[in-house]
Amino acid sequence: MTTSLLRLAAFVLLCASLAPAADLPDVPYKTGDSLSSYEKQRCLLDVYLPAEKKDFATLVWFHGGGLTGGNKDADSTKKVALGLAQSGVAVVVPNYRLSPKAKYPAYIEDATAAVAWTLKNIAQHGGAAQRVFVGGHSAGAYLTLMLGMDAHYLAAFGLKPQQLAGLVPVSAQVMTHYTVRQERGISKFSVTADEAAPVRYADVKNLPPILVLCADKDMPARAEENVYLVALMKGAGNKRVTLQVIADRNHGSVGNNIANEGDPARLAILKFMEAKK
After folding, report:
1. What CATH class is the domain 24-274?
2. pLDDT one-digit tens code per residue, 68-110
3. How many CB atoms lie within 10 A of CB 176?
4. Can you give the residue ranges of every domain in the chain?
């Protein structure tokens, strides 16, 4: 191997060693003989722990990707998790099955299983079980709202949405997700709000506190959807839902920039979690 190649290999190894690393990587959150090979491959989560090792809050954070892509090992997702962990909260980052290999509601069921794992296991790692929050960006925010608002998902694990300390959806699709529509042969641009739409549950009582975040330059109609959801919830009497539109952000940066210290979305999330002690 030439000197230049050796230097390149050394540089690659150095970069890999500096990449954000989970304290507990690739933990299976679904087990059993009935799991498919795809479930065994995708139903894993990483846990990032804060320096404070006792009674810390935890955020289960779901990656985006339109329910068709994305990975907990993406550099942007790992940076968000590590940044929040450095701010004093644990971050649990699951993968989940993706469309078209999996169809609705498989990805919501996977997300719920990851939350159930966290509620039942985080205390073993120093976290406070009563301070488990759920959040995510884009498709991850859709999963957050579905499992946190439609109680039957958590009920399958003997749990209730009220056991969650709060929900933090960032740029969620609140109508029936366009990937779900496409699975059903419905146009991506056909407005649908059936049982697969978070907005369908806007009048449900006793939901966890919800911090809704979106970007001022979000993708077309996305910010408006979020404003609509919050307006409906407030109209139905929900006093524990808050909307914050993050200035000078687009659909991607409103999620990815949470990794940065001082980012307004990051500060809003930490304030929201701190208030729920």
Report:
1. alpha beta
2. 999 999 999 999 999 999 999 999 999 999 999 999 999 999 9
3. 23
4. 24-274
